[in-house]
């Protein structure tokens, strides 16, 4: 599952794309607080590029930018909250939320974590590195992920696996710089965001098929919550 968990059965969720658009709209609104022009707002530019790659409707994208930048007269306030704890069978989890009502989100997280264990701040984060994560796919036949990582200034990389997508890891402050450099190295950036990479991930082979399924079900329930933006899991593979 790696650093960022992704549902294995996204095709089963009819509203998966709608949820994705909703999450991206939130990120756009938060980023647009620092300015509505992507050319001078690196964080906004990265999210806008990601939204375009998944075919978010232009009017939805524009509305989110204007709303976040305060150009519509509507008050928008999302709070960034991290919940830490364990999925079933002691698999560490970090859940990143953007919420307009922490008093709603906190009890919902407590309920969702009943099949695992909700921890206090710092109880799990010590076992994760805060990094920039860039998903990219080769745009030419001779593209080499290792060479691209070195030339673009990435700290590390995970070679292309399923679907031919490589992941480049950066220092958080270098996320935009590396994203801009990768196209010249033969890679098309699909997404770029800050995230958490486990230092000591649990080996899936140490869990039975039944236990792995329990972890998957737990993570799917967390991810389905409207306030959840990203789920980072300490499970290798």
Characterise this structure.
This protein is α+β, with helices and mostly antiparallel strands and 237 residues long. Helices cover 34% and strands 26% of the residues. The chain has helices at 16-31, 42-53, 58-68, 102-112, 145-152, 175-181, 209-223; strands at 2-4, 79-87, 91-99, 117-118, 128-138, 156-158, 166-170, 187-198, 228-235. The strands form two sheets. The chain has a five-stranded antiparallel sheet with strand order 1-9-3-2-4. The protein has a four-stranded antiparallel sheet with strand order 6-7-5-8. Helix 1 runs antiparallel to helix 2 (42-53) and helix 1 (16-31) runs parallel beside helix 3.
Helix and strand element order: EHHHEEHEEHEEHEHE
Low-confidence stretches: 9-14
N- to C-terminal distance: 5 Å
CATH class of the largest domain: Alpha Beta
CATH superfamily of the largest domain: YebC, transcriptional regulation domain
Instruction: Give the CATH topology of the largest domain.
Output: Alpha-Beta Plaits
Can you give the mean pLDDT?
Answer: 89
Number of domains as seen in the coordinates: 3
Q: What is the total tally of β strands?
A: 9
Helix/strand-derived class? alpha+beta
Q: Provide the spatial order of strands within the biggest beta sheet.
A: 1-9-3-2-4
Number of helices: 7
Beta-strand proportion:
25-35%
Q: What CATH architecture label of the largest domain applies?
A: 2-Layer Sandwich
Radius of gyration: 18 Å
Morphology:
globular
Largest sheet: 5 strands, antiparallel
Q: Approximately how much helix is present in the residues?
A: 25-40%
